[in-house]
Fold:
Amino acid sequence: MAEKAKLAILISGRGSNMAALLYAAKSPDCPYEITLVASNDPGAPGLKLAEAESIPTFAHPHKGLAREAHDAIIHDAVIRSGAQYVVLAGYMRILSDDFVRKWMDHMLNIHPSLLPKYKGLDTYQRAIDAGDKVAGCSVHLVTPELDDGPVLAQTEVAILADDDADRLASRILIAEHQLYPATVAKYVTRQADPDWILAQVRERALALEETHERASFGAPGWRVGSEKSGKYFAYFAQSHHGEASIALLVKTTSLDEQSALLEAEPDLYYLPKFYGKSGWIAIRLDTGRTDWDHIASRLYSSWCQVAPKRLTKMIAIAEQF
Ligand code: GRF
Structure:
């Protein structure tokens, strides 16, 4: 099994979501481990539970400290623990932009509503008062705006006719305890998930001008130009022709460039069957270390090779300025 992802969990209170994550991490095939439970409240009950389970803990009260200063102390503790992800589990502090930026795409939160509905507090009563039939919980990536980052997963929880906020909250909490460990596990292994990898490629390929997607022999491919006469500039290969399991095929500028790439990084590039002769190259996407900016620039360079002159001419002109 690949090395486990390392998480730091931040709590302020009872820590039941922390407990759910911690117990899930005891399973040998769980893809993450917990390196730290940290809190802004030294009296948080969750800290005691973590200690009893031999998880390192850290607490530093925020009182009297500027937000940035307190966040920096927490950040240091997280880094020292070796964590690669920050998982918020009832952490009742708004985080500074600086902290959020440092952990961008590596910090998750759970919120007791079906986001984008009911950001902030008092979510249960607001759902009941609105006459909603369902409430629920959401796991999302943390961005500077409160409870606003991309939602990774949600669970719907039916609202019963005689529900009050407490009863609803306790059922949503059960759903949270299922959702959070599963979503964290999926997120930390996303780099090996073919669907996630494909979505990354797709986003970058379709960001180029006049492109569309069309399957070629069952594999996703991207073309530039019209639907009718467009030309392929990239193919997604998954266990294609018995080669490495996931790769992107793009066109190089010449056979010389193709062989230079193969020679420079034999672990990253390989010669694709059938396409190799016409200057295409395969880039492995299953190494777990994909540099997505590099993929974007390879897609662009391949696009330039086959794009109609009217498109590349405009770029050539723009590049002169
Ligand atoms: C949960 O309701 C969670 O959705 C919210 O804070 C609460 C934390 O509870 N973010 P616990 O400390 O995990 O028990």
Q: What stands out?
A: The two ends are 51 Å apart (CA to CA). Residues 11, 13-18, 89-90, 110-112, 137, 173, 176 surround 5-O-phosphono-beta-D-ribofuranosylamine (CB under 6 Å).
